[in-house]
Amino acid sequence: MERPSYLPSTLRPPRAQCLAVVMVGLPARGKTYISRKLARYLSWLGYQTRVFNVGAYRRERLGMKHTHEFFDPSNMEAESARRSMARAAMEDMLGWFREGGEVAIYDATNHTRDRRAMVRQGCERAGVPVLFVESICDDEAIIASTVREIKLNSPDYVGVDPDEAVQDFSARIAHYEQRYETLDASDGSFVKLINVGHELVLHDLRGDLPGRLVRVLMNLHIVPRPVWLTRHGESAYNVAKRVGGDADLTPRGERFAVRLTDFFNDHVIPGDDVQVWTSTLKRATQTARYLPSPLVTWRALDEIDAGIFDGMTYEEIKAQHPEEYARRQKDKLRYRYPRGESYEDVIQRLEPIIIELERQRSPTMVITHRAVLRCLYAYFLDQPPSSCTRLDVPLHTVIELTPNAYGCDEERVPLGDPVPEEV
Amino acid sequence: MERPSYLPSTLRPPRAQCLAVVMVGLPARGKTYISRKLARYLSWLGYQTRVFNVGAYRRERLGMKHTHEFFDPSNMEAESARRSMARAAMEDMLGWFREGGEVAIYDATNHTRDRRAMVRQGCERAGVPVLFVESICDDEAIIASTVREIKLNSPDYVGVDPDEAVQDFSARIAHYEQRYETLDASDGSFVKLINVGHELVLHDLRGDLPGRLVRVLMNLHIVPRPVWLTRHGESAYNVAKRVGGDADLTPRGERFAVRLTDFFNDHVIPGDDVQVWTSTLKRATQTARYLPSPLVTWRALDEIDAGIFDGMTYEEIKAQHPEEYARRQKDKLRYRYPRGESYEDVIQRLEPIIIELERQRSPTMVITHRAVLRCLYAYFLDQPPSSCTRLDVPLHTVIELTPNAYGCDEERVPLGDPVPEEV
What we know:
Two copies of one chain form a homodimer. Chain A is of the alpha/beta class.
């Protein structure tokens, strides 16, 4: 029996799995956007994840400037160069799997059966199953906006006249269209995404991981809207430096609740279908109590469960349970409070919250707790899970996040009384 | 503001939602199987759910025996009778929505655009969004097995010679094929299921609830395999009649662990890829410790969290917190232990476990706790959530469940020492 006989407790799937997600699609179909989104989600859940972008190999090894002629399928020399870049990225990917990588995202057009067969055979020889994800778009408005985006941001067109860039890029797309072959049953497992989640085709999907990825792909949208994250107002336990508990707000915390309501009223546009989510704990619902929106309380937003240490100060834990204290210092991400939770546990239980937040098209205010907020923040800002345990998320501050095509804008708005530094 | 200003804490979607799931497909494509599966899942999650089967209206109102001529589209009189049955079922469904129904499953062939437009307009006028679910099957082996199943079980063919039944039923299918129109963009939101989950097409899906249904539909399969549910062996807390805690096994509990291993070895066929899942609590992992399979420990399988009453006996709770005790007696399903969980909470956190168990194609042994086992059992045996709080699940007994097309077979195997009656 090769597998460990006792796996860590987790909501992750029962078996160690690896997977190569292989993107398919013409240029300007959002492949890179989707690749990053999937990578961010998987990394946050704790998978060893990496994107292998064939275009980056081309730029790095063959230089930056390639006009559309390089992508002409009748240009045999260029075709051979492009094929060798695809191979190089694939070899690196397979090497990375050998070193323990779990999910690779292979980001390239892979627009011919021939090219896809090459990637698939390479992966399957290495024992890595393949899932193709094709992005198809026939909505001219979406394509035009993506082309504009690429023209402005692509390293391929730095310093090039914008009109010229658009022209060249359109010619490049036309070269790919010539030989484009959409996915079919001969490609094995695949997901086809048509017009950013408007239609999905799922073919021969097996297993938990592809199912999770489908949930992310189903909820893709590019409607900008803010997510306001905040901790509850100061509670009696904050003052006493005790962890956990279910204390009431202090007068300072109460003032924050009032100021948060002002913030809310200043930022919400009438007609916005705003949602306010809180944990089930008193300090969170009390913080929300003056808000004009109905509340939704989620147990999944409750603070990390400190188990048998609930209600103690860190000083007391250190004095009475020095070994536990030391274990926690050593690996705060994985350390599980006796009869309580680890940060890793918190991330797992927050997964439905992330899916729901991604799905929302209107603003959402989330009133929660330090550890939980750190985990949510790490997702949006694409921080590694290990950073969750240290991120700075002060009391009495609203963090406004606005997800965009390439990440997330952040603004921090301090509201109300400053609070003494926390441990 | 019409919505309540404070919704119960839940992992359910933030908004009260209702939905009409309208099945589409030829006879013998598993529509009724899928309808029941979705209904069972949704009821268990706490949605007010009901299946409206148009065939049942026909049998009830027009009598049992209809030969294939009744389904001939050129038979205008029958066509009109069938249409009025479809309307009657729809009117009942809309009435049920008005009385607070949340998710209706409208089970009929709905194989023409015309008929679907009728159902959709009726629902939309009542403010109920519609999701079509079409089951397409071109695998002759699956169809033949479904036809056989129907021939054996359908109330339409009671007392009919089997060969004659198959012939008539095939003629009935042929009538429907004549006018069959598959779903397309004009139908709005839909899911197409091709060959029992081999391929899915998701069109214009919005919202959390359709997303959840897709997860169920993605994992449909009809490979029979047992699920063995058992509680841990007797623990010191069982003897002391204390709730919660993290006690060790008693000698009697230890003997159960040994006997469970014998049971396992007797029932597992070499080569079976058996999974053993336990909670993270000592009494569960100790019960599993002699099993020859690696364990997967899930926090989601931990016992209901008794919050501030953890470690107390029911007598003590009653004596020290009579009001809480009385509240719990009144509504055990929704009663949440202070700082702990309700049965409803437990069901929500078990949802990923159910999805995983449905997905498995090989046997799974689940070693868990009384409240958790009750909730899992209620799902498989299609018991209402309210029954969860009372189901009889004794210690030292393996419950073998084998899901089949129309429900679940159950066998109970007592192993080891009898244990005194529990409260």
